[in-house]
Amino acid sequence: MKHRFALKSFTAALALAGLIGSAAAESLKVGYLPATGHAKFFVAKEQGLFAREGLDVELVEFHNSADGLNAIIAGKLDTGAFGTTGPIAHLSKGTRLKIIGGIMGGDAALVTTLAGAAKIKDIADLKGKKVATVRMASGDAVLRGALKDSGLNWKTDLEIFELKNPSAVIEAVKSGQVDVGLVWGPHDLRAEAQGLQIVIHSTDLQPGHPCCRLVITEANGKSPETWEKFLRAILLAERFAAENKEATIEAIAKYVKLDKELLQRGYYSQYIDQSSDPDAKGVRHFADVMASSEFIAKAPDVSSSIDARFYEKVLNQLAAENPGDAYWQKLQQDFKRKNG
Fold first, then answer.
1. Domain check: are 200 and 239 in the same one?
2. What are the tens digits of pLDDT across the range 267-291?
3. Number of structural domains, the chain?
4. pTM
């Protein structure tokens, strides 16, 4: 009887500890797109990395960057990763945002029919074409910048249609409503599986370009410690995903309802950069490209809107905790190169 009582008491103590831990956890609402590029959110959630940092994270799905970013600005989300185009466009209009890190880079592509692929060998071949994109997608800004560099005016030399999500873009190409569509991964691979063909990757047009940035509003009431915990979980998820493919794909599959083989090809693609670095230099260049192509009227002073201190502090902590670990040392070197 004493043993049973002790066991029940121990079980109750564990349950109470769990309740206390849950009550003590800080809640965050984080927006994401159902894409392989946002896998670190899913890994951090499913592997308990957010919880380990004392964060109770609710992941909220969006289907395009414009809607997600508007939710952050409206205070409905604490943070999220919604392209580079959207944050820069809002900053150019005076919106008070801070970029504190990244989720990924690259990973957009132009797709067309097999018949259309024979006619599109480079960006200049888009002259006179109808092109579908997703509103405020990073690849859209990269495309318009590349068109400018090739001597084409995206306002007069072709027609660009901004659609709601990648699925709508793919259907527009398949139905012949447009000639070419711009989507992000793994929807480029999904389009390929449906009989379309990838003709140009965004990294062909702007090598190393940043994509989804981790954004908060300047008015966000969370403490610096909160964002340090959040970025620590993201960095640990990055490391986990690099070494644990099967568990990573299992985590992605809970949020992106596509074939697992396709998800693996998408996440571990050569065309995607999985860095969580803020990449201040890349963001500044992206803003200059947007202004040059007249996507925005004037490039904002993005340097004042990038706060890399949280990321740098957490990265240095992880490197100090794991002396001699080449993974964290490389990220430290990358940080100096991308943010110097």
1. no
2. 999 999 999 999 999 999 999 999 9
3. 2
4. 0.90
